[in-house]
Design a protein that fits this description.
Layout (H helix, E strand, L loop, with lengths): L1 E5 L20 E2 L2 E2 H11 L4 E6 L3 H10 L6 E6 L6 H8 L10 E5 L2 E3 L3 H11 L3 E6 L7 E3 L5 E4 L7 E11 L15 H8 L5 E5 L5 E3 L3 H13 L5
Parallel strand pairs: 1-4, 1-6, 4-5, 8-12
Antiparallel strand pairs: 2-3, 6-11, 7-13, 8-11, 9-10, 9-11
Length: 234
C-alpha cells in the first residue's frame, strides 16, 4: 500500500517554535511528528510513501535522508515554489499513485493511534471512492453523513444527518483523480464536496482512538502529555 503524508504546512500558530523548523518536524515525546506518522505507516505495512514539502523543506529532506526502514521507499513532492494545500498537493503527486490500489493520505501534524489496517479493511468493505476518518468532536468545519455513512455535504447547510469532524486521515481510490476539476492551490475537501452527490464517500468513525491535532502550542502540550502516557500505542 502507498501513502502520502502532508508535511508542507507553515505552522504559524506554533510560533515561535516553528520559526526555525517546519511544522512536521515539531517534536512530541522527543520525536518529530513526521517520524511518528512514518513509523505508524510502516507498522501498518505501507511500503512506499510520498511526502510533500514547502516551508524549510531542506530540514525535512535532510531528515528523510536519514530515515530508513527495511523495504520502505520514500519520495519527495517539492512544493517549495508554491504551497498547494491538500487538494493541489495531492494532484501534484498524482503520478505516484499508478498501481490502481487504494492509498492512504495522512496529515503529519496529527497524533493518533488509528488502526490503518482496519481503516483499509473498512474502506474496501464500503466500496466507495474515498473513506474519511471522522470523530464526534468540537469543530467549526464538521461534515454531514447520511444514515448509510455517506458524505452528503458540510454540516450547517440545512442537511440532516450525522455531523462529524474530519480527522486528517483518508483512504482514496486512484480514480478519484478523474474527478479533480480544479488546478493549482485548493483543498481536497472542496473536491469531496464537488463529487459527493455522484460518488460514494464514506465515514470511518474511530471515536475510541487517541487523536490530537498539533495546531497550537496548547495542543502541542496536550499531545506531549498524551504521548507520554501512551507510548506503547505508538
Amino acid at each position: 500500500m502507498k501513502a502520502m503524508i502532508f508535511a508542507a504546512g507553515l505552522g504559524t500558530r506554533l510560533r515561535p517554535m516553528t520559526d526555525n523548523i517546519p511544522k512536521a518536524m515539531v517534536e512530541v515525546g522527543g520525536q518529530p511528528m513526521l517520524k511518528i506518522v512514518l513509523d505508524r505507516c510502516y507498522s501498518a505495512g505501507i511500503d512506499e510513501v510520498v511526502v510533500n514539502v514547502h516551508y524549510l523543506s531542506n530540514i525535512i529532506i535532510d531528515f528523510l535522508a536519514t530515515y530508513h526502514r527495511p523495504g520502505l521507499k520514500i519520495h519527495i513532492s517539492d512544493e517549495s515554489d508554491e504551497l498547494l494545500e491538500t487538494g493541489g498537493g495531492l494532484l501534484k503527486a498524482k503520478d505516484f499513485f499508478d498501481d490502481g490500489q487504494p492509498f492512504l493520505v495522512a496529515n503529519a501534524d496529527v497524533l493518533t493511534n488509528i488502526d490503518i489496517q482496519l481503516f483499509l479493511q473498512k474502506h474496501l468493505q464500503y466500496g466507495g471512492i474515498a473513506t474519511l476518518a471522522v470523530r464526534d468532536r468540537s469543530s467549526k468545519r464538521k461534515l454531514c453523513f447520511d444514515m448509510h455513512g455517506r458524505l452528503i455535504g458540510r454540516a450547517g447547510n440545512d442537511l440532516k444527518g450525522d455531523e462529524l469532524a474530519f480527522s486528517g486521515y483518508h483512504i482514496l481510490q486512484p480514480e478519484i483523480f478523474n474527478y479533480f476539476n480544479r488546478e493549482g492551490k485548493f483543498s481536497i475537501m472542496d473536491v469531496y464536496m464537488d463529487i459527493c452527490q455522484e460518488h460514494s464517500i464514506y465515514a470511518f468513525s474511530h471515536q475510541k482512538d487517541i487523536w490530537v491535532d498539533i495546531g497550537t502550542i496548547e495542543k502541542w502540550e496536550e499531545a506531549n502529555i498524551v504521548y507520554k502516557g501512551n507510548k506503547d500505542l505508538f
